[in-house]
């Protein structure tokens, strides 16, 4: 049996954190990460080679070893163990005016590998979750086409299918960090990204079914939700690798991800992946819709604003250790784990520094390396227990190197909101706790 | 008591309709043809079973939402609980506008607009109902016997090989969209004015609409309440530490205002404004931003694209790849890359309070 949490130490940890950082809402953050914080205090930092007394987890006959458990139909749709209740999406209430037009964040610190479980993929809605019978869903293609068409879901599922793994990142991911380190947790700083396998039909096939006229240059994608989300997509991209998807990780899309149908725009900002996709219009000019003019444009220091900034740049973050996933053991083997991705293709290499960027060593990418998908990297470290400033730096297949936050600020100022792919620094303290910092 | 009082009216009307016997004049053969449009979801005739919709044997006299084993919408069940009984009259009203008559029904069919079509379908359906709207008591047992006796030929499922393939495209999937359908969904507006509907509205007309429909979030003068978007002002703030990005100070095109208000506003009641009201609100937003100064200014399809927003020229194309940290694609430094590392900033997190205006950027 694991040792009981040492309440005194936990409270001390809370106290010192609070002293360090004025402001009442520190508590809110702690409550999110506290369960793991308890672990830190409990585990004790000194490694023991030999147990002083026999471990009752071994010497006691446990209930689960003795009595029968639930039968097969106790959970017709399986759910995670109740011991995993920390692995949930969380939001930052002050970011937006209303939860119907808001965002929550993937708990990256609780995950491994490259696939995000469907129930943990971050959510971003502009008019709440549209929920309706797929028998009432229609996809229309109109505009500069030979035959304007209407498809039912059954029609769409009769086209040849493709399975593709792609990351989806909101353009505003890390957007709260432009003016400096602000949120303690990779869930909050980097959690507007997820990666699943989609099943669907290529957008090219659907457009070919309608027959795109030669003067067609742009496609407007529109959703059926209460925001009737619209984005203009250049035809070249639409004919390249976009999918119209109805499944994620093998099962039907979740309602919050656009059930029954969404657009997949690989490597490009998440806002373009229109959910509840109901219409595709072909035109000869972009439409300059709200989400590509007043939003999702990047204001620069000189007052100019970049528009149509579609590609998600090369980026990475260490997910563990991180503020919500402190180190709970003593010195010795430490797995540094993280994710890297690029809208340009595959990740060629990830370097990790443990001294704030003075020296770097190349991390090990493990698992599939797929274009425009998350990559998992590890650095297996023999930690001596001293303080660390850990960073990761990704390089993609086209040679783009993840910049520092200062390089980005020098080029763009601090008001861009979107497309912040700067190198993240975590400050690992001698007691294993971790803080979001910036370094010189 | 009644959860669905609307049907009191329907039933009362039914009585009148029966007394005048205005209906029941439909043509069964024509009705059978029309019923082809229903067949994808509804079966009728001996041995008919529930499909996407419930079977329609003995539908006359049936209380809505009561066939065992069929998953009705909660709206249809409630309608039954509110005493909706299917009769010539109620079916007629339902078929005219299904989703209006039973708001929330799963039935996706838009309805038969022509009264004659409805009469013919009803006449056809009546050939599968022994009981009438006003003879509910006789109901089921007798019917079951009769159906068992009449047993043979269930309406055969159409053979796959008989399905018609449209001529378009490669896979011949989907069907041609009608002009009416395209008009219903294609409401997007471009900066050149393409897509604008007929209509007009003055800023003066927009003011009370704005006050009623928009001000609870955006403020009476577009100043924005809480964290809702600010719509007016903010001129010359784009280079400041806290830029105020409004329609006047930031948005490049007026068409976006019209398009967005029409498709998505007011928040939670989209598509409720008339085209003229959207013109008036758009004109009023111009007025709030001093882009027009006369409250009597009238915005219409004709003068719309002559209005330019002040910040249009400040939008530039994506040139991120030209930033120096990207153009320098040489091998990055691996050893002794800097002499000194100091912590320059720490998570200010700390204030995750909902109404703290001093923290962070907005993402919306």
Question: Would you mind describing this structure in some detail?
Answer:
The complex is a heterodimer of chains A (440) and B (364). By secondary structure, chain A is of the alpha+beta class. Chain A contains 9 helices and 21 strands. A 5-stranded mixed β-sheet of chain A has the order 2-1-10-5-6. In chain A, helix 1 packs across helix 2 (26-43). The longest helix of chain A has 18 residues, at 26-43. Chain A is globular. Chain B has 364 residues and is mainly alpha-helical. Chain B is 32% helix and 4% strand. Chain B has a two-stranded antiparallel sheet. In chain B, helix 9 (203-213) crosses helix 12. Chain B is elongated and about 90 Å long. The chains are: A alpha+beta (440), B mainly alpha (364). At the A-B interface, helix 2, strand 1, strand 2, helix 7 and strand 10 of A face strand 1, helix 8, helix 11, strand 4 and helix 13 of B. Strand 2 of chain A pairs antiparallel with strand 1 of chain B.
């Amino acid at each position: 049996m694991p040792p009981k949490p040492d309440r005194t130490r936990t409270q001390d940890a809370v106290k010192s954190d609070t002293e360090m950082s004025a402001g009442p809402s520190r508590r809110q953050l702690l409550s999110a990460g506290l369960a793991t914080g308890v672990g830190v205090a409990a585990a004790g930092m000194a490694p023991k080679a030999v147990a002083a007394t026999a471990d009752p987890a071994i010497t006691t006959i446990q209930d689960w070893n003795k009595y029968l458990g639930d039968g097969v139909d106790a959970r017709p749709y399986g759910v995670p163990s109740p011991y995993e209740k920390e692995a949930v999406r969380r939001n930052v209430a002050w970011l937006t005016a209303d939860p119907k037009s808001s965002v929550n964040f993937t708990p990256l610190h609780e995950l491994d590998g490259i696939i995000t479980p469907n129930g943990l993929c971050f959510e971003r809605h502009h008019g709440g979750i549209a929920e309706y019978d797929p028998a009432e869903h229609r996809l229309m293609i109109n505009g500069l086409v030979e035959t304007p068409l209407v498809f039912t879901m059954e029609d769409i599922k009769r086209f040849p299918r493709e399975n593709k793994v792609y990351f989806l990142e909101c353009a505003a991911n890390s957007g709260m960090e432009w003016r400096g380190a602000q949120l303690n947790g990779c869930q909050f700083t980097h959690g507007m990204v997820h990666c699943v396998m989609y099943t669907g039909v290529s957008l090219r096939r659907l457009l070919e079914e309608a027959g795109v006229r030669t003067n067609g240059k742009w496609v407007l994608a529109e959703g059926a939700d209460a925001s009737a989300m619209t984005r203009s997509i250049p035809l070249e991209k639409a004919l390249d690798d976009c999918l119209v998807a109805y499944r994620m990780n093998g099962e039907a899309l979740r309602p919050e991800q656009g059930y029954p149908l969404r657009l997949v725009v690989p490597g490009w900002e998440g806002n373009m992946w229109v959910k509840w996709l109901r219409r595709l219009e072909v035109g000869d000019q972009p439409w300059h819709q709200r989400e590509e003019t007043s939003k999702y444009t990047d204001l620069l220091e000189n007052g100019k604003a970049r528009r149509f900034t579609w590609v998600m740049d090369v980026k990475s973050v260490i997910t563990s250790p991180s503020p919500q996933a402190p180190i709970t053991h003593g010195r010795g083997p430490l797995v540094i784990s993280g994710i890297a991705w690029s809208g340009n293709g595959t990740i060629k290499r990830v370097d990790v520094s443990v001294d704030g960027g003075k020296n770097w060593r190349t991390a090990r990418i493990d698992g599939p390396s797929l274009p425009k998908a998350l990559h998992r990297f590890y650095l297996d470290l023999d930690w001596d227990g001293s303080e660390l400033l850990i960073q990761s730096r990704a390089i993609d297949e086209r040679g783009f190197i993840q910049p520092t936050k200062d390089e980005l600020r020098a080029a763009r100022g601090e008001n861009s909101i979107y497309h912040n792919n700067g190198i993240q620094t975590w400050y690992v303290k001698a007691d294993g706790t971790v803080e979001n910092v910036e370094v010189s | 008591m009644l959860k669905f009082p609307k049907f009191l009216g329907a039933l009362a009307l039914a009585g009148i309709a029966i007394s005048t016997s205005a209906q029941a004049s439909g043509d069964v053969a024509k009705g059978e043809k029309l019923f082809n449009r229903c067949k994808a979801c509804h079966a009728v005739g001996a041995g008919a079973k529930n499909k996407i919709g419930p079977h329609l044997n003995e539908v006359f006299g049936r209380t809505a939402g009561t066939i065992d084993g069929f998953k009705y919408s909660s709206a249809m069940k409630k309608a039954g609980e509110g005493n909706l009984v299917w009769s010539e009259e109620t079916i007629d009203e339902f078929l005219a506008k299904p989703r209006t008559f039973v708001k929330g029904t799963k039935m996706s069919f838009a309805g038969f607009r022509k009264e004659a079509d409805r009469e013919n379908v009803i006449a056809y359906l009546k050939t599968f109902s022994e009981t009438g709207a006003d003879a509910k008591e006789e109901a089921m047992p007798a019917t079951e016997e009769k159906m068992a006796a009449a047993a043979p030929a269930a309406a055969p499922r159409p053979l796959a090989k008989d399905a018609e393939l449209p001529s378009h495209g490669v896979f011949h999937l989907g069907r041609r969209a009608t002009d009416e359908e395209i008009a219903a969904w294609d409401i997007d507006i471009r900066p050149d004015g393409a897509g604008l509907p007929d209509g007009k509205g003055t800023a003066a007309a927009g003011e009370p609409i704005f006050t009623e429909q928009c001000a609870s979030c955006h403020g009476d003068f577009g100043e924005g309440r809480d964290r809702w978007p600010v719509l007016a002002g903010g001129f010359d703030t784009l280079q400041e530490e806290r830029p105020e990005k409004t329609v006047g100070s930031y948005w490049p095109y007026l068409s976006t205002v019209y398009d967005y208000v029409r498709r998505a506003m007011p928040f939670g009641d989209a598509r409720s404004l008339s085209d003229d009201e959207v013109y008036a609100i758009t004109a009023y937003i111009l007025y709030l931003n001093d882009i027009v100064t006369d409250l009597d200014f009238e915005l219409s399809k004709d003068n719309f694209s002559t209005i330019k927003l002040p910040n249009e020229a400040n939008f530039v194309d994506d040139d991120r790849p030209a930033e120096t940290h990207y153009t320098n694609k040489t091998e990055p430094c691996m050893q002794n890359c800097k002499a000194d590392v100091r912590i320059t900033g720490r998570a200010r997190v700390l204030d995750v309070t909902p109404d703290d205006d001093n923290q962070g950027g907005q993402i919306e």
